[in-house]
Design brief:
Helices cover about 55% and strands about 5% of the residues. The protein has 21 helices and 5 strands.
Length: about 425
């Protein structure tokens, strides 16, 4: 066991020892209830790298005392799956117990391969546990999804990684040679990826240092020890994280460096382009509405020109995004609105903003009292558009940066008109 990677040595065998994912494994939570009953159904674990999907699959098998078979959709084909199915069927015929089949990167299987699981899942001969970093709604067959529960795993929090560090140091029987500030920096470098974090811990544990490393010394060490970039594995996620955070930190030169590193490693420029489009809304938003326009234009230009000529268009986009004013107000507003939508249930819109195409609907008060905003002097009626059961909500909080300063003025103007309530409710 000592010859195995530290992440493998510390892999929990029971779900009680798993770090993080309290929304699934806490007391009374869905996966905890499933394992306490000792009977699990087929499921899909959707989450980022290093969030514990493989560990959770092992724990499910151990807790429910099921034989465990793991395959990877990257390396396995129909022939290997057929052998697994035959063995599982034989075991089921003899014992009446299913086999837990863990399929890593299940989204990489094509439609026919995904369909091959269906009869064995339906007969109860296998319990399928699929792991994916991609949205199952887009990447998995509807037939397969209908037979599986989907559970979303989250990146490990700072407190989760601190707990993982404590376990690692206890297992290694010594603390890492880091100052408290460097330990915090190490946790930040992991970006919620438990496996990447333990790999960093292991690389530090094998070195001898005369004095604890400072954050800057830790950065130098990690850079020297960084593995070759693999666009299909951990390096892919580490470098895109570095690029994203450099952009967020408005560090143009660092962003250019990580962009160049990814291209040199063979990354698909269009993948980076898609991330730039996402960044334009997530980290800039309405602080500079042109950011999204620039991102879309840069990606479209690259698609027309191709490599290497089109890469300069992505560089132009990258520099624009890095130097733009930053705001995550949109990124915060939408989840807040979704939480309210989930909590409030199926409330009806107020009747005055509903159309009344039939006499019955008119009789029921649909459309009654609606004020057409363009008929008002200010082009603003100030009417209520939330369900009557909910007071007016504020989800979007623009920041005093860039164009959002102008948006603040607009919102304050409309709020003053709304409070005057000149035109009725």
């Amino acid at each position: 066991m000592k010859n195995r990677p530290l992440a493998e040595q510390l892999r929990p065998q029971s779900f009680q020892d798993i770090v993080g994912q309290g929304h699934l494994l806490g007391q009374g939570k869905p996966l905890a209830r499933m394992m306490e009953r000792g009977k699990i159904t087929s499921l899909i674990l959707w989450g980022p790298p290093g969030s514990g999907k493989t560990t959770l699959a092992h724990s499910l098998a151990n807790t429910c005392h099921l034989p465990f078979v793991a395959v990877s959709a990257v390396f396995s084909g129909v022939a290997e799956l057929r052998k697994v199915f035959e063995t599982a069927k034989h075991h089921f015929d003899e014992t009446g117990m299913p086999t837990l089949l863990f399929v890593d990167e299940i989204h990489r299987f094509n439609r026919a391969q995904q369909d091959s699981f269906l009869p064995y899942v339906e007969k109860g001969e296998i319990v399928l546990v699929g792991a994916t970093t991609e949205n199952p709604s887009f990447e998995l067959n509807g037939a397969l999804l209908s037979r599986c529960q989907v559970f979303t795993l989250k990146r490990l929090s700072v407190s989760d990684l601190e707990q993982l560090l404590g376990r690692a140091e206890q297992h290694l029987e010594h603390t890492l040679p880091l100052t408290p500030e460097a330990k915090s920096a190490l946790i930040e470098m992991a970006d919620g990826d438990g496996r990447a974090f333990l790999n960093l811990v292991e690389s530090l544990a094998t070195e001898s240092f005369s004095v604890p490393l400072t954050p800057s010394e830790l950065t130098d060490f990690v850079s020297k020890r960084a593995p070759l970039y693999d666009k299909a594995q951990e390096g892919h996620y580490n470098l895109i994280s570095a690029l994203h955070k450099s952009l967020r930190g408005s560090d143009v030169d660092a962003a250019l460096y990580w962009f160049a590193r990814m291209l040199e490693g063979g990354e698909d420029p269009l993948y980076i382009g898609r991330r730039l489009i996402r960044f334009a809304s997530e980290d800039i938003g309405m602080a500079d509405p042109q950011a999204l326009v620039q991102a879309l234009a840069g990606v479209e230009a690259y698609e027309r020109l191709g490599s290497p000529e089109g890469e300069l268009c992505l560089v132009q986009t990258l520099v624009y995004l890095a130097t733009a004013p930053k705001s995550n107000a949109l990124y915060r507003a939408f989840p807040a609105a979704r939480r309210k939508a989930r909590d409030s249930g199926s409330l009806m819109p107020p009747k005055h903003i509903l159309n009344a195409p039939t006499k019955l609907m008119k009789a029921e008060g649909y459309g009654k009292g609606y004020q057409y905003d363009h008929d008002t002097p200010e082009g603003f009626s100030g009417q209520n558009y939330f369900p009557h059961e909910i007071p007016h909500q504020t989800f979007y909080h623009p920041l005093e940066r860039g164009f959002e300063r102008e948006i603040i003025k607009r919102l304050l103007y409309w709020e003053r008109l709304r409070k005057r309530n000149v035109y009725g409710k």
